Every structure is written in structure tokens, then in C-alpha cells.
Queue: 2 jobs
Job 1
Amino acid sequence: MSTYQKLGVIVSDIETITPTIKRFTLIPDENTQLPSFTSGSHIFVQMRDGDNQYNNAYSLLNSPFDEQRYQIAVKREEYSRGGSAFMHEKVAIGNKLIVSEPNNLFALAPGAKKHILIAGGIGITPFMSHLHELEQQNAEYELHYCYRNAGEPAFTPELMASRFKDKVVCHISSKGSRLELDTLISRLPEGSHVYTCGSHSLNEGVRQAAQKVGFPDQQLHFEQFAIEDKTGDAFTVVLAKSGVELEVDSESTILQVIERNKAASIESLCREGVCGTCETMILEGEADHRDQYLSDEERKSQTSMLICCSRAKGKRLVLDL
Ligand code: FES
């Protein structure tokens, strides 16, 4: 977590929300003062399990006006890299953890006429904090919460008992109440912003619906912590400082290949294109950007890339390493 301030926290509570989702409440240890955060922020949680180290990003789901604690929800993923299993099985109340200061890549757009929040499954988490902010702003908003089966949604009892309940619409696809994205987006007043957090197919559905009705791209916002696809054509990466040339095969990332060959020492944190820690300057060639960190302008400039996830557009890339 080199680019982020590290914070020592204590797990003060763990609640089972569903059979696969737990909520963790984190309070500062004796040396820490928790920085305030804005709604939509995430933190990285550092986990050490023997020789393995994980740094997973989780949205903060408590109110940004609650300055005494951070709350995150962790879904136990069947095929996780280990982080979610660690949180579920090895973390107990009273344990100390290291987390990063909050960072926000999914903030509410200032001045939006209306905010439309679309959550798929565990993608509800960043919206749990946005609801507090939107109420505080007295903003116009709706939350559409989509899930497959009536038995699986996290936080619905809490939402339905909250002051936000009239703004929440649940869409259960197994019951035939799937969200009609085309209809929703075509009826939005001008100046609305749409925020989506969920699966790749939900994100794509929103993108396509927006395109169909000419909804402006810059008013669409997406939160997605795991890169769906880091694979692609093989290419050569050249490390300019040492002159080392490496072949990046179609299944590996540049970072993995450099680490495997011990060709340079690279700092990394999320390894999912979220945190920016592995940002590297491009000297020759063009990147096929897959990250969620760089802005559109930064991507277009082809000045730098996130080597934990992005690839080359051509056959060769020269990096300032
Ligand atoms: S390690 Fe976080 S963006 Fe690459």
C-alpha cells in the first residue's frame, strides 16, 4: 500500500448478512485516526495468510457522516484468490488489520438533476453509503436493486426498514420483475446521472441501453473491482533501463511476467487496475488499457499504463522500467 496511507484498525463486529456475505465493522486502533470519506469510497484491506498476501478493495458501506468506523461487506467467492475466504474464516472480532486510507473512484456527480443507482447483487455496497449522502443533499434519486432469487439479496431487510425505503425498487429476475433498462434510461430527465455496480453483463446492459437512446457517456458511472478479462494476444515487453526483453503470453499480465523472471522490482497492491500503484510510463508502443484508474484523457495520451492488467495494442511495448 505504498501510495496510500496505512491505517491500523480493530475488527469490532462481524455480522452474517447472508450465508455468503459478512459485514465487518472496523474501528481505529490506539495509534490511528480514521480519515473521513465521501460516499462511494473504497479501502484496501491487507491480509497475510502464511506466505500469501492479499490486498482486496472493498466499498465502504456505512454513512460518510459516521466518522468513528468503517464498514465493509465481504462476499465469500467460490473461486476467490484467497482474500474473501481469509476474511470469512480467519478474521475474528478483536483482530487487528491494516487497511488503506479511503479512495473514491465512484463519487456522486455534483449538480446532477437526478441520480439513478443500479445495483446487481453484492454491487449494492457502494450505494449503501451513497444513500446517506443523497438524503443529506436532499437530492432526487432512485435505487434499483437487481438480483436473481428472492432468497439471496443482502441488506434488503435493512433497506426496507430505513428512511430510504421509498426510493428503493427491487427487481428479482426469477420472479419475472427484471429491470427494463431501455425503459428506465429512456425516461430519465435531462441532466440525470446513472451509476452501476454489478456484474459485467449488467454493466454492458446499461451501456447498450444508454447508447440506444443517446444517453451521454459522461453521465454513466461504473464501479467494478475485478477486471473481467486480462487475457489477449501475446506481445513483447522491453524494460528500457535494463534492456531486458520478455514475452508476455496470452494468459499472463506484464506484471506477472516481470515477477516470474525477476526482471524488475514493481510495487503492486490491488492487481486489478484499481489503485494505480503499478502505473508505469510508456516509452514506445500503445497500451490496450483495461484498468479503472486512468481517466479517458490519460488513456488516450498513451503516456502511462497499469501493468497489472493492461496489455499492448501491437506486438511490442517499451516501458520505463
Ligand atoms: S496494482 Fe493496483 S492498479 Fe496495478
Job 2
Amino acid sequence: MLKANYSFERQVKTFTHAEVIVIGGGPAGTAAAISAARCGKKVLLLEKSAQLGGMGTLGNVSVFMPVGNVTGIYREIIQEMLEENLLPEHNHSIAPQYSPFLLRHYLNEKMKKEQVQVCFHCEFIGTIQEGSRIRAVIVSTREGLKAFEGERFIDCTGDARVAIDAGVPYHTGREEDGLTQPMTLMFTMQNTGKTVTPVLPEGCYDYENEADLPQGRRLYWEQHNDGTLLVNMSRVKANGAIMEDVNYAEMEALKQVFSIAYYLQKTGFETYALAHIAAQTGVRETNQINGRYTLTEQDVVDGVQFADVVAQTNYEIDIHSPNAEKTTDERKVSGYDIPYRCMVPEAFDNLLVAGRPISATHVAMSSMRMQATCYALGQAAGVAVAISLDDSSPLNDISINKLHNILERQGVKFIGK
Ligand SMILES: Cc1cc2nc3c(=O)[nH]c(=O)nc-3n(C[C@H](O)[C@H](O)[C@H](O)COP(=O)(O)OP(=O)(O)OC[C@H]3O[C@@H](n4cnc5c(N)ncnc54)[C@H](O)[C@@H]3O)c2cc1C
């Protein structure tokens, strides 16, 4: 008979101790680690895969969507990797495409320069708590389970994994039914210069026209200088934090990728071969913490400003149909602030959540989820934990003045402040 639960008790060796432990090495996590290290803190970055960059490398997203304020560590990345896109002022919009392979290498080198210790193949599995503090995280490593002790923790897992394990309340997807935005497996094709024979593997779909495509549209970026085509056209109804959904999505999205490539080869891209498929199907939305403040659609639409601003964006409301219908709700916004409080879970003194799972409604997160915004949130979280260490203050009670001053010293500018 199936036993409903098991208790699981182990003695786990402590691997190391750091002042700041960042869990998840995507846009939010890499920026958080860099900014905390720049404040002189010993920082450890735990990443479950073999690469930094999150969806921007693992998911092959490869475009930085415009956010209207090119600032801080995100600006540095553009300057150091994609300088031709940079304008002197901060308040402008750019949407540079990049190589996810180069970004992966760039971030590795950047972490070395910034003296951030990176641990790959380290998957967070649980928190060890003492009252309102997290004392350590238990991590599955290539050497088995290990404990990592820290003073401050920043959850940048994209799914609020650490916060949820610690018991922080959260919500998922649309308020009315919990459905999240669908998943998409990104891929690239390469212009070979000669006609290729289209291949449709067994079990795939033979789309006859645009209306048959999973998104009912063609969505891709052509790079004429090197003949690559970045394709964002698959769509699978799934929540990337639910096992059964992910099991389905990984297989269904791959079928769609082959089918879309075949369709494109017959309709305008006759010389393009399938070149690269992302290692995993991209996740747009899973969990949002219920933090000290929840960013709402009204805030986004009204262009609200906050005294404790930590990121600014004018990226549109962009909701790929959670039912995986062939629609996308796209609405322009003029620009708004994201407050520090969206990253602060109520019940913990030494935990922040940065990146896409901050406290926000379904509609608000559809706009704030872009990479540049996640870099900005991560950078602010890294500075915040450093201040909280220096001042021995809980993370929900740090000086916002200090936060803004240090961010400014790190190259962050807020428009209109
Ligand atoms: C298909 C798709 C297209 C998109 N298009 C664009 C676009 O064109 N431009 C744009 O700017 N943005 C785009 N986005 C959005 C953007 O990529 C993400 O919202 C952004 O990367 C989120 O950053 P993050 O750091 O919060 O999380 P993520 O990028 O998801 O990074 C989280 C990291 O944490 C790691 N992690 C997760 N769990 C654990 C664990 N238990 N232990 C250790 N590590 C863990 C993951 O491996 C990952 O490296 C797109 C997203 C998708 C899915």
C-alpha cells in the first residue's frame, strides 16, 4: 500500500559558510551576487544547472526586451557585450539580440572578476530555520547533500523555491483560476545558403497555414549579419513549477519545435536548417510571493512611483494566453516603479526574493518579468542584504536612503528622481 508521507532525517555536512547566499543564477541571481560582492560581502551563488543567465541562456531567450531605463548592472552588460546598442542617456529603449553562448561565458568571467564563488549543479532542496531566520540551505550537489550556512539569503530561483519551502505565503498565475502563462521552447535556425530538405519527424504536426501555428503567428528575430533566426513560436499550456505539466511540456514543446521549423522551411526560410534547441522549455510564470507590497495592474497602468523604488520599466503588459489559445494580450504602458517591499517576505528577517517571483499580480508580473528588470531587482537585493549585514537590521527595516545611495554609486539611475 502507498504510504502517504515519509519523514526524512539526515545528518548533512556543512560545506561552507558565506555572508550572502544567492540561490539561482539567472538575471536576478547574477546581479544580486555581483552587487553584494561589490559591497565587500563574501557571496556564494548556487545554481542548479551548469550555466549562469537563467532563461536568458538555458532557455535561449536571447533578446533583452526594452524597459525604458538602461541602468546599473544591466547597462554594464550591454556596454561590455553589446556596446553598439548603448546610448549615453539612461532613459531610452533598446532591444538587443545576443548570443546566449557568449552571455554564458561572459557571466562566468564576470563572477570571477567580482569574486563571487559559483557552485554549479547545486540544487536547493530545503531551508533550515531558526525562528524568523534562515540558518542554512540544504543543497543537492554532485557530492550528495550539503548544508550551506549563511547570514542573508536571496531567493532568485524564478519560482520562489526557497521562500515557499520556508513557508512564505504565495500565489500562482491568474487570480481567477491560477493558470500561468504558457511555456515556450526557444530555438534557432541557421541560413546555410542553399536549399535544405525540410524534415518532419514522426508524430509532429504538419501546419498548413499561420492560423494553425501554436501562437497563431510568426514570431522570430532575423540576424542578417550572421544568418541566424531566433524563433519564439511554440506554446504549451503548462505551469513550469508543476511536475506533470513540465513532463508534458518538455515533450509537446519539442514536437512543436520540429513542426514549426518544418513549416518555416516551406514558407520563406527554404535555406535554413534547425541549428540549436534550448536545453529546457522556457518558463514565463510560476509562483509569486505575497510580500510586504503587491504590485498591481493598476500600479502598472497608472505609472505609479514609489519612494522605495528599486527598478523601473515601461515594458508592456504581455500575457501569452494562459489557456494556450492563439492570443496574446499586449498593452503599452508608460513606465512605473517597482518598490523594494515587493521583494520582502513578511515573516523573515534575512530572506529576500528577487526576479520574476516578486510580489505581483498576474497582470503586473507579465510586464515586470523581463530580464533587464530582473537584473535591476537582483542588484537592489544584493545591496539591501549588504546594508542589513552592516547595520545588523532585518531586511524589512533597512534604510532606503542608504539603498539608493549605494545603488547610485553602483551606476544605477532612476528616471525622474
Ligand atoms: C519563452 C520566453 C521568452 C522570453 N522572452 C524574453 C525576451 O525576449 N526578453 C526578455 O528580456 N525576457 C524574456 N523572457 C523573460 C525572462 O527571460 C525571464 O522572466 C527572466 O529570465 C527571469 O529572471 P530570473 O532571474 O527571475 O529567473 P530565471 O531566468 O528563471 O533564473 C532562475 C535561475 O535559478 C535556477 N534555479 C531554479 N531552481 C533552483 C534551485 N532549486 N536551486 C538552484 N538553482 C535554481 C535556474 O536554473 C535558473 O538559472 C522570456 C521568457 C520566456 C520563458
